[in-house]
Amino acid sequence: MVYVTPQELTDELEIFGLEGDADVLKELQQICDSFSCNAEDIITKWVAFSHSSGNIPLTMGRLSDFQLYLASSKNKAKQLIKERRSIVGASQQFARSILADSQPDSNVLDLYSDSPSLNSASATPKTPKTPVTKTYGKTRTPKPQPFHAESPKASPVSSKVSTPASEKYDARQDSGSIVKELGSLKKLLEKENELEDDRELHRCGKVELDYTAVKYPRVMCTDPATQQSSLYNCLINLGDAMQELHGFDLTQLSFTSTDDVVGLGRIVCDGDGKMNPKSVLLQTPNGDYLTLDMDACPNFALFPGQVVAVKGTNPGGGRVFVKQIFHGANAPPAVIEPPEDTGVFSVMMASGPFIPNEAVSLQAFQDLMRSVQSVRPNVLIVTGPFLDYRNEALLQCDEPLNQLFDGMMLTLSNVSNELDMHVIVLPSLRDLTQVGAYPMRPFCVTKFDVSKKLIFMTDPCMFSINGLVFGVSATDIVFHTSFQECSKQSGNPKDSLDRISRLVSHLLQQQSFYPLYPPHNDVPLDLDLLPLVQMSVQPHVLVVPSELSPYVKMVDGCLTINPSSIVKGQSAGSYGLLQVNLEKLRNESVVSEEHFSCQVVKI
């Protein structure tokens, strides 16, 4: 019997931006008891079920269908286990037997191998099918027109307000309200009139943007062996970093040993479902697969593709009894060296979609431009999707989609010139006008002269603003990892993190913007470009827009922000606003809460 409290269910629902009444929570408690699931597992399964069924709402009627889905999945799992047991012999041959099995999930392990079999093509991630846009006759394409915003009006700022998910964009009543907030700099800025002699609080007038232009190579053009070598190099490099950090000696875990040893490897799931503590395998650097017995390990958080160091014994040669997991090593942060007399500079962050699902309306994008003109940040970071392939209204639109996109880019260019502001634009895998693999190549706009301060960058990317290092990705790795992670907390407050912080910490400890492997079905990861996904240094600010609820958190000395999206389905979303006093952070490597203010604000 598993007892789950209503508060635990409410906390997990809040992570995904969901809510349930007393009857729904009571029914979820009964489901947890019936299927022996904790709050985290049952809510994750509900979100997966909801997405696969067209984002259905959380109601009592839908929970009945959910129970049938769980019962069906449980029966299939039992049948699969029964079939495997009839095939698999000794435990030390477990992984290789799975590879030889003819079940649909048998080729999953090939994705991790340095020499995958030729029959593993079915398990290779594929680029999602992009709807074919309509073709037009030989008519002259109209010149892109910017979308003009009305004169800016100050947005009212109030306390946190929750908006029903069913409320449409035009019907919102909480525009300008603060959803999340962290940092105490705002209190000092509010007293700026009383501190006129304090030059440290003046607005930044000089912005130095430092970034490296990436020469984007050909994609998906090398053989599998070469691509797998990229994974091997990442495994060895992170292993060296962990060894230097923790000071242990690495040995081969595949050798029989009754003494505690530490070995390096990549986490693998033994099937195609969500990984659990009983389905964890470890791929060693020499290609062996070992079963990990996690019963004696008090604290762990694992997902497929994660590079870890395992401490334990291997008495039989095929099963490792784990006592401790080393989850990675953070990259060293850069020292903040801002220009002289920098003062307080501000960064505004916004993510697509910008068009509601019900109609092709650019009102939300225009409202964002009004907010930009009102706030007047030093830098604006905008990530896609600009034209989302999930938007049914766009797929049925008769107007040329490229014309809509060019108009949005022209508007950003004009605002950049008008406010003398840097604008950084990132593409998304969900953009209709940008097709390619991950990491994504930057947008290429040639139909008009763009502002010199309008900069198109890859997804993901890293850059420095006045010495402060930013890491930005438009791909929702936090959401993707939440479906694959399995964890166990020891109960010690020093070892325990909330779920969002734990998911974000994976990116920093793996030194990667996308450490999940095999990737999500929506992410056609190109292993040739894997170095572009790695973090050369730990960013001071990490911006990862996600479908999860907005958050602002300090994780491992890094300020992490989820500004959410401007539009969420048919309802209004939010954007992020960061203000930093760099004069107080000179020669520091961590952004302290006393010297910044970060808010997530309703559009």
Label this structure with key terms.
603 residues, 12 helices, alpha/beta, single chain
Task: Give the strand content.
Answer: 15-25%
Derived structural class: alpha/beta
Q: Trace the largest sheet across and list its strands.
A: 1-22-21-9-10-11-12
Number of strands: 22
Concise overview:
The chain has 603 residues and is α/β, with parallel strands linked by helices. The protein has helices at residues 6-15, 22-35, 39-52, 60-87, 94-100, 185-190, 224-246, 363-375, 392-395, 401-419, 477-482, 499-509, and strands at 178-182, 209-210, 257-269, 280-283, 289-293, 300-302, 307-314, 319-326, 344-351, 379-383, 422-426, 454-456, 461-465, 468-472, 486-488, 541-543, 551-555, 558-562, 567-568, 571-572, 574-581, 596-602. The chain contains twelve helices and 22 strands.
Overview of this protein structure:
The structure is a single chain. The chain has 603 residues and is of the alpha/beta class. It has twelve helices and 22 strands. The strands form five sheets. The chain has a seven-stranded mixed beta sheet with strand order 1-22-21-9-10-11-12. The chain has a six-stranded mixed beta sheet with strand order 2-13-14-16-18-17, covered by helices on one side. A five-stranded mixed beta barrel has the order 3-4-5-8-7. The relative contact order is 0.15.
What's the structural blueprint in terms of helices and strands?
Layout: H1 6-15, H2 22-35, H3 39-52, H4 60-87, H5 94-100, E1 178-182, H6 185-190, E2 209-210, H7 224-246, E3 257-269, E4 280-283, E5 289-293, E6 300-302, E7 307-314, E8 319-326, E9 344-351, H8 363-375, E10 379-383, H9 392-395, H10 401-419, E11 422-426, E12 454-456, E13 461-465, E14 468-472, H11 477-482, E15 486-488, H12 499-509, E16 541-543, E17 551-555, E18 558-562, E19 567-568, E20 571-572, E21 574-581, E22 596-602
Parallel strand pairs: 5-8, 9-10, 10-11, 11-12, 14-16, 16-18
Antiparallel strand pairs: 1-22, 2-13, 3-4, 3-7, 4-5, 6-15, 7-8, 9-21, 13-14, 17-18, 19-20, 21-22
Helix pairs in contact: 1-3, 2-4, 8-10
